[in-house]
Design a protein that fits this description.
Layout (H helix, E strand, L loop, with lengths): L4 E3 L1 H11 L13 H11 L2 E2 L12 H7 L5 H6 L7 E5 L3 E5 L7 H8 L6 H9 L1 H14 L21 H11 L4 E5 L5 E4 L1 H4 L2 H4 L6 H16 L1 E3 H7 L4 H13 L3 E6 L6 E4 L10 E4 L10 H8 L20 E7 L1 E11 L4 E9 L7 H15 L4 E4 L6 H9 L1
Parallel strand pairs: 1-8, 13-14
Antiparallel strand pairs: 2-4, 3-4, 5-6, 7-9, 8-9, 10-11, 11-12, 12-13
Length: 402
Amino acid sequence: MAGQERLTRLQAQRIALAAQGFTGRKPASRVERRHLLRLLDRIGLFQIDSVNVAQRAQYMPAFSRLGAYDTSILDRAQARRPRALFEYWAHEASLLPVEIEPLLRWRMERARQGRGIYSGLATFGRERRTVIDHVLREVERNGPLTAADIDGHRGASGWWEWSEPKRALEWLFWAGLVTTHSRGPNFERLYDLPERVLPPQITARPTPSPADAQRSLMEIAAKAHGVATASDLRDYFRLAPEDARPRIEELVEDGVLVPVAVKGWTKQAYLHRAAQRPRKVEARALLAPFDPLIWERSRTERLFDFHYRIEIYTPAEKRVYGYYVFPFLLGERIVARVDLKADRRASALQVQSAFAERKAPPETAAELFKALTSMAAWLGLERVDIRHQGDLAPQLKATAES
């Protein structure tokens, strides 16, 4: 568009970091529930992941932005009254503020029609309604229940090994007919009816039209990005292009989104009208692989010139950086990456590899070691163990020994 503002990549970086909560002051004393909810109001959701090699993904964004906190605060916010969070499919499986639930009912309705869900689950929904109805009655009578509580579940994890009750529960969850009451000791879901889980003032809210709900979701995404392309915005809540495109046009027309150009970006960018524009960002944070700042990998590369791929599913001998790699944000740049594992028996945070990025500043190793020490203490681990793998490892080990 002619006459639109032009941003440098550094300006875009700073806007994005501010939008994601990396410029706010950390709590002066301890992190409380209100701090977590304020952060969630800013970024919209925490992605859930069951991998627990270092720390589960949903707990990390708050640590990265607020510092060490008692994770039971987050657990209670999603499992006890007054309940503030609920689980649903947003970006992926996510923890979201309960106020967002009405904005996702259109997705639940489509799931009931077999749209927008895995093809195998859609087929199961069409062909096995008797099983689904039986499982729903079990939850109605006896919830909250795990899949293992329902007769016939074998406890296997892969789709082809799931029992029919487990598949029924997953279909019901997608359809919004059951929801997560809480999580068990092995991270298994306990399912119950939404009206017994969600606050009554949420379930009583009118259901917005799909267009209105999608527009609200796009605005939440825009606020969480600060500046973004259309594909960035729709990826945040995994909206289809045909749903997202008209909503962006409406938000531009309403002045919520301002078209801008970002140097080096080939696609049109949009700036949220309330986006902060800090002159400098002084962050220091380890980022989980599923942190919302970096989960859209092409955006991460555009913003930070940082090529990042998670290698969990890559055979060990073909991995470049490691199994569960945390990028390290220092100041306004991602300057290093470390493959971390929490060895709870040895009470050690293991740095299995450490690599510096091009033009990483001289203080990278020292600042990274501070961040690792802080993370180890938060996890209740006594020390940081560093292995000699990666170009940054010797310097990091020397820092630890000095």
